[in-house]
Amino acid sequence: FSREFLSFRMSLPPYTLIDHGSPLLWHQFQDLVREMKWTSDDNTVLSLTPTLSSTRCVFAQKNDDGSFLGCVVWNEYDDLAFIGFYLVSPLVRKCGLGSLLWSRAMERIKETGRIIGLRAVPEMAAQYSSKDTPFEVSRLRKNLLTCSEMREFCDKFPTVVDTVKLASELTQEQKIDLLRFDQEISGRDRSDLLIPFLTCSRTEGSVILNGEGKVMASAGITSTGFEKDNLFKLAPVYASSLSEVASLIRALLPFCEKFSPDSRIIVHILTGTVGERELEKVVGHPQNIETVTLFSAPIENRLNGNKCFVPHNHGSHYDG
């Protein structure tokens, strides 16, 4: 072995791979994700992931104090195993730990026979697609706007004549109908995610009700990154027109502005949705491709492409 290789290996402290997370590991994992500025993984995702029954994980923890060294975190549901997080502490990168974590995760997932999915940063997409996940399904583009810029976008479209309400103001019956509407769009019962999502700190939703009081469009917004950044992610947005989209967003802007008038809002546009066809060309402020969604086998897009302007990109609920 070369001297350089040995120096790398010696920098890795004694550790153990475990198939569960402690409160300390989850906390340190969440802080590292925020430091990495992975804005598609908002704070509701980070807070809910440890609690979901579908969550699976492999952590590497230091033997002396149980602190975080690295992890692979995924969710298993239906025929999918979707990897939302794969990261190693910057202090121990290039020591071979990442490969060991990945191998352990792959061993467990392949035992289930599920299709493997993941979201890769663009610079890693080729590496993932050459191995376990060769099929690209979609790409997620990031748009960043201030509240005032978002208001300018909304002002381009007329306010809908139907009733617009905040999710926090819905009756119990209307909340149940929101779950019905979400299942209609996503094709899945996601109440285990949406009910706690709407009660998370710095999270709000809006809906449009038709003349019969039924939900016909919905949107959500939640913080991402550290609170001091006053950065919010718009997701999901399920609607039938840009006027509905603008009305849903317009109702949510005061929620962001109460934290800071300088709050910024991220809009992720997923390829293959009506958002790409209609919203992207008018919202403006494109930043970059943030993630590439890859699978181990061909898979259909499970979202209603005619209503999905902005998906709730949550690792446990494939781009939905």
Q: How would you describe the overall organization of this protein?
A:
The chain is of the alpha+beta class and 320 residues long. The protein has 10 helices and 13 strands. The chain has helices at residues 3-10, 23-36, 43-48, 97-112, 122-129, 147-154, 172-186, 191-197, 242-257, 274-283, and strands at residues 15-18, 55-62, 68-77, 80-88, 115-120, 135-146, 163-166, 203-209, 215-223, 231-238, 264-270, 286-295, 308-310. Strands 1, 2, 3, 4, 5, 6, 7, 8, 9, 10, 11, 12 and 13 form a 13-stranded mixed beta sheet that branches. Strand 9 and strand 10 (231-238) form a beta hairpin. The longest helix is centred in the N-terminal third of the chain and has 16 residues, at 97-112. It is globular and about 60 Å long.
Percent helix: 25-40%
Q: Mean of residue pLDDT?
A: 89
Quantity of strands, as a count:
13
Question: Shape, please?
Answer: globular
* Low-confidence residue ranges: 1-10, 314-320
Element string (H = helix, E = strand): HEHHEEEHEHEHEHHEEEHEHEE
Category by helix and strand content: alpha+beta
Whole-angstrom Rg: 20 Å
Distance from first to last alpha carbon: 47 Å
- Could you give a short account of the major beta sheet? 13 strands, mixed
Number of helices: 10
How large a portion of the residues is in β-strands, by DSSP E? Answer: 25-35%
